[in-house]
Amino acid sequence: MIQLRHLRYFVGIVDAGSLSRAASTLFVAQPALSQQMADLEQQLGVALLHRSARGVRPTPAGELLYREAQAILRHVEKLPDIVRDSGGEVAGAVSLGMSSTVASFLAGPFIEACRSALPRVNLSLVTEDSVSLKSRIDAHGLDLAVVFEPQAMPDQPLMPLFRQRLYLVDRRKLPGHPRSVPLQRVAALPLVLGGASNVLRRVLDRAFADAGLQPNVVVETNLLSSMLAAVHSGAGATVVPLGEFGALLGRGTLTATPIEPAIYLTACVAHDAGSAPTRATEAVRALLAGVIARLLRDKPPPGMEPVQEG
Asked: Is this model's pTM higher than 0.85 or not?
């Protein structure tokens, strides 16, 4: 019979990439760990791991088990919260992802708000690009994630928070200090952009194609910090959904100019649809909406607007 320890050991081995490292992390003797995996493979009737001198990696069947085992283990970890979730003060663990761009201005205020409004919620924050965060959501590795989408779609399980205009960012000011920069001018510059799967890159590629333009992409990277570092080095300009860099230390020399015609991304909250949300998860999602509403009302960052309905 498959037991929870089999799943914990298997996930630990895949995460570690080797039996020896997993044995150290899991505090299990390596021979015993190998025997547990042999028993699991025998019970399932399939090979789960490719073993080599360089370590171990999951087979296709192992990849499937890895995703399902993560979901099962996360659900088991949340059982105490679910059982106690009948009333009283909101408590429990919530894993939240934010795209690196959103985190640059939202992570600080939200963590502060969460500590004040939900003191018994243990918040775990992960910062990655939107594609990676959505993959984690699909693999049941996160409860919530704030990700960018081209626009809010009625058939998607996403809660729109706000929309953000795209800006050209460079270390040199544009001649004449224009209030906006035409897309044709953007395409002619050496650009530092995300890879083909990046949400912003897909939106830009579509805008360039619709305008009959071919962008001059010289560097590809999906993280905001890497993009800005490349711009600082003089590699080129970039396009980001961020109009100012006050929250980022050492970025004061960069200039941001809105692109014309205006192009927007919509920031949404994605959730793990494969498991029932706890009160803590629901409270964190509601608090996110509240923090964004206050930002929009009081002092929104440049280019941040309410989502347009209709």
From this structure: no
